[in-house]
Write a structure and sequence with these properties.
The chain is mostly helical and about 190 residues long. It is built from ten helices and no strands. Helix 9 crosses helix 10. The chain starts with a helix and ends in a 16-residue tail after the last helix.
Length: about 190
């Protein structure tokens, strides 16, 4: 009886967020099937750890945090990082030319691209930047909420968001100009 009540409570708390959670997974996944697997795994882990949920108001953030771990675990297992192309570092000229608060190149690049082009560019970003951009710019979470989901300080969120936007805009600009390197040339280290 207690387990049935707990299952009902779990369903009531998580059901409103499942489609949105799948949307977040789908924007990160290389395919719909992978997104479905990630979402299912996140829900299984959420059920397993349901007793640890203390703030029932923050269920979506809790589910996003679990999904983030699922995605990170899967990416580590698939060894995607072994296939990364040359790194763009903070010493590179493109990053030096752009001020952290400069909104110009990012907004201009985003405005000229289709949703599909933008999501392809976002998916090609290194994990730590992709996750912050998805959670902040697409999901609309605050810096504090993103930090909670990713287990990082809000300052780290701001730094990753700034660098991620620069990488994304550079990628979109290269894509727009017809530079074939855009699909594989923008990657960075995990220093932030």
């Amino acid at each position: 009886m207690r387990k049935a009540r707990s299952k009902q409570q779990f369903d009531a708390l998580t059901r409103p967020w499942r489609d949105r959670l799948f949307g977040v997974a789908q924007r990160q996944a290389p395919s719909r099937e992978v997104a479905e697997d990630w979402t299912q795994e996140a829900m299984l882990r959420a059920w397993r750890d349901f007793a640890q949920l203390t703030d029932q108001v923050a269920v979506y953030a809790w589910l996003l945090k679990i999904l983030n771990r699922v995605v990170a675990d899967d990416i580590r297992r698939s060894a995607r990082r072994d296939r990364l192309a040359p790194m763009l570092t903070t010493g590179d000229a493109f990053l030096q030319e752009q001020a952290c608060t400069s909104a110009g190149p990012f907004e201009q690049a985003v405005q000229t691209q289709s949703d599909e082009q933008i999501m392809n560019a976002v998916q090609a970003l290194p994990d730590n930047f992709r996750q912050v951009i998805l959670l902040r710019d697409i999901e609309g979470l605050s810096y504090q909420e993103v930090g909670h989901v990713l287990d990082v300080a809000p300052g780290t969120v701001m730094s990753r968001l700034s660098r991620g936007r620069r990488l994304l805009s550079a990628r979109l600009i290269r894509s727009e100009s017809g530079d074939g390197r855009g699909a594989t040339s923008i990657h960075t280290s995990k220093s932030t």
